[in-house]
């Protein structure tokens, strides 16, 4: 009996301490530390990406207006899409927009990056100057300015009359309405330019020196040295810009509103319209999934064909 | 030979300056428009110098819409932007630390999941997110605009991971020898050393969120909760006569925070873009 009384007071704090130690040791295990630190991502991924995607997948097979219960209609939304003339037109104009605006923007970016990596005075000022449009181009402020620039009596038409051309009704003409949108996108070549410029700096100057020794012309040096060595970065820019061009929304929403006659009704605008103007959440979800498939397919194609033109050294 | 070289040098400068002026012209035109009256703006004048300097536009524009001034809209934008930016910076740093410095089971799977979300077009999850927030009664509040930022953003996580590669692992090891745990290694060593990457994330996230239009457009349904970008569009509303001078004045003011950040943190910005390829 005495023994027990003697032991307990000693064991009590010991038990506590080892409990704390156990917790501490447990918390310091790499597996635990890893999950503690990555828990924000895991929660966010499950809650803000995966779960919404599952929800969206379910609703894409239903008729749902957020007021009454969702009606299961099977592939109804998807079959309806292929007979929806507005949808088909939005796919077509989006593909035209992506197909024109992305190459134009990247060619601009590459060309200017090539100029601003040369050792000339004031390079950083030029670079900053060309980057400013990218910095503010996504804002409503710039979209509003753009709308005025291309208005009927706007600056662009004034300029055109001054050089003897007849003014154009940019936003009234179905064939012309996309031009201001492509231009505002190309105008923001700055961030691609900076990525290209960083890549150009990594090309050893000895390559160019050797080429000059061999009598290569500037154009040949560009095609034979710069382009191949820069091709992985071109691929990266191409994919990122393609994905973001597919999602173009703000500028078209503010500048043209999708008009005239749906000539600039980009995919994202039509999804927005179906979801938030007509409350066709099921139909809009189906459209979102088709969009994901289209983007995935095009990204896959770019990757697939990139092996013919990208060069990763040896 | 020397002359030819000089000539091409001047040619380059001439081209870059001319091109730069064309590039920046729309911005300058907007700023000068803020000081012009509507008659002058509507005449399609190309001049960057207003005929008579006019400051009324700022007062007229600031008055806002329906009794709500731009003080409210700027305040709303600032609250949403600051909260989102804090959330992004802290959560992305934590996640980047786990991915790049801790060896744990499942790390590769979560890392690939993160890369996937980088390629995932935001609009696929836009509608279901709206449905979910709507069923929780959160549409109309700023929660849908701010909350997702507290769970890391793939672009910034990736960028911070690339930065962490440059922090020598020996630092972690010697700190561990001195009795630091993985938690204190993060708070005392990695996080402070991450400063340049944290600044880049802060400024890029700040200006993305400041310019964000689609989110506020969908989730904010009361004029008193509008952000600057949503309120600005009211100037061009089809239902009313547009006060162009006021529109340009407030547009100019709305870009001031972005310009200030650019002026002071230009270096971090261009570095951040070239290391992680952030889209602008």
Largest interface: A-B, 98 and 94 residues
What share of the residues of chain A lie within helices? Answer: over 70%
Mean pLDDT over all positions of chain B: 86
Order of helices and strands of chain A: HHEEHHHHHHHHHHHH
Q: Can you list the strand order of the major beta sheet of chain A? A: 1-2
Query: How is the main sheet of chain B built?
Result: none
**What is the name of the CATH topology of the largest domain in chain A?**
MetI-like fold
Question: Which architecture of the largest domain in chain B would the CATH scheme give at its second level?
Answer: Orthogonal Bundle
Total number of beta strands of chain B: 0
What brief labels describe this structure?
heterodimer; A: 314 residues; mainly alpha; MetI-like fold; two-stranded antiparallel sheet; 1% strand; B: 280 residues; 2 domains
Q: How would you explain this protein's 3D organization?
A:
The complex is a heterodimer of chains A (314) and B (280). With 314 residues, chain A is mostly helical. Chain A has two domains: 2-59, no CATH class; 78-306, Orthogonal Bundle (MetI-like fold), CATH 1.10.3720.10. Chain A is built from 14 helices and two strands. A two-stranded antiparallel sheet of chain A has the order 1-2. In chain A, a hairpin with a 7-residue loop joins strand 1 and strand 2. In chain A, helix 5 (123-136) packs antiparallel against helix 9 and helix 13 (267-277) packs antiparallel against helix 14 (281-306). The longest helix of chain A has 32 residues, at 85-116. Chain A is globular, with a radius of gyration of 29 Å. The N and C termini of chain A lie far apart (81 Å). Residues 1-11 of chain A have low confidence and may be disordered. Chain B is globular. By secondary structure, chain B is an all-alpha fold. In chain B, helix 3 packs across helix 14 (244-276). Chain B has 14 helices and no strands. Chains A and B meet through helix 2, helix 4, helix 5, helix 6 and helix 7 of A and helix 1, helix 4, helix 5, helix 6 and helix 10 of B.
């Amino acid at each position: 009996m005495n023994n027990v009384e003697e032991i307990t007071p000693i064991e009590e704090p010991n038990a506590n301490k080892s409990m704390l130690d156990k917790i501490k040791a447990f918390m310091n295990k790499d597996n635990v530390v890893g999950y503690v630190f990555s828990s924000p991502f895991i929660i966010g991924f499950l809650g803000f990406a995966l779960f919404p995607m599952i929800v969206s997948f379910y609703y894409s097979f239903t008729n749902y207006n957020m007021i009454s219960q969702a009606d299961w209609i099977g592939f109804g939304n998807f079959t309806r899409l292929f007979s929806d003339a507005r949808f088909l037109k939005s796919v077509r104009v989006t593909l035209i927009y992506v197909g024109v605006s992305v190459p134009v923007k990247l060619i601009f970016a590459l060309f200017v990056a090539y100029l601003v990596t040369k050792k000339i005075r004031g390079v950083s000022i030029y670079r900053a100057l060309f980057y400013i449009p990218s910095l503010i181009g996504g804002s409503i402020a710039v979209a509003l300015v753009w709308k005025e620039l291309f208005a009927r009596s706007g600056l662009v038409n004034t300029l055109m009359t001054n050089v003897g051309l007849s003014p154009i009704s940019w936003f009234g003409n179905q064939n012309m309405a996309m031009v201001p949108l492509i231009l505002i996108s190309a105008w923001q070549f700055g961030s691609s330019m900076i990525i290209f410029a960083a890549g150009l700096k990594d090309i050893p100057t000895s390559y160019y020196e050797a080429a000059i020794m061999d009598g290569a012309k500037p154009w040949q040096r560009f095609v034979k040295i710069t382009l191949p060595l820069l091709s992985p970065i071109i691929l990266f820019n191409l994919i990122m810009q393609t994905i973001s061009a597919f999602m173009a929304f703000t500028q078209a929403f503010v500048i043209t509103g999708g008009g005239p006659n749906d000539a600039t009704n980009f995919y994202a605008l039509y999804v927005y319209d179906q979801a938030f103007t007509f409350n066709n959440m099921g139909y809009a979800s189906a459209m979102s999934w088709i969009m994901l498939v289209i983007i995935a397919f095009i990204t896959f194609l770019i990757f697939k064909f990139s092996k013919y033109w990208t060069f990763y050294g040896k | 030979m020397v002359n030819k070289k000089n000539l091409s040098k001047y040619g380059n400068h001439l081209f870059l300056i001319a091109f730069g002026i064309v590039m920046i012209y729309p911005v300058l035109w907007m700023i000068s428009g803020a000081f012009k009256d509507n008659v002058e703006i509507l005449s399609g004048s190309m001049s960057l110098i207003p005929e008579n300097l006019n400051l009324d536009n700022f007062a007229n524009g600031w008055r806002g819409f329906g009794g709500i001034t731009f003080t409210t809209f700027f305040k709303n934008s600032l609250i949403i932007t600051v909260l989102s930016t804090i959330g992004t910076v802290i959560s992305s740093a934590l996640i980047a630390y786990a991915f790049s410095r801790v060896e744990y089971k499942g790390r590769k799977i979560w890392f690939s999941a993160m890369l996937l979300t980088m390629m995932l077009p935001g609009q696929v999850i836009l509608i279901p997110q709206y449905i979910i927030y709507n069923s929780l009664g959160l549409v109309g509040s700023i929660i849908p605009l701010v909350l997702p930022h507290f769970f890391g953003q793939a672009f910034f996580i990736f960028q911070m991971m690339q930065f962490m590669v440059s922090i020598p692992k020996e630092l972690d090891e010697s700190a561990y020898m001195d009795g630091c745990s993985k938690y204190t290694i993060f708070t005392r060593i990695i996080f402070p050393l991450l400063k340049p990457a944290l600044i880049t994330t802060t400024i890029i996230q700040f200006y993305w969120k400041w310019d964000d239009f689609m989110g506020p457009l969908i989730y904010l349904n009361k004029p008193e909760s509008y952000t600057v970008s949503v309120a600005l569009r009211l100037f061009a509303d089809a239902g009313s006569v547009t006060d162009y001078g006021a529109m340009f004045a407030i547009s100019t003011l709305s870009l001031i925070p972005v310009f200030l950040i650019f002026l002071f943190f230009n270096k971090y910005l261009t570095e951040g873009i070239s290391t992680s390829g952030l889209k602008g």
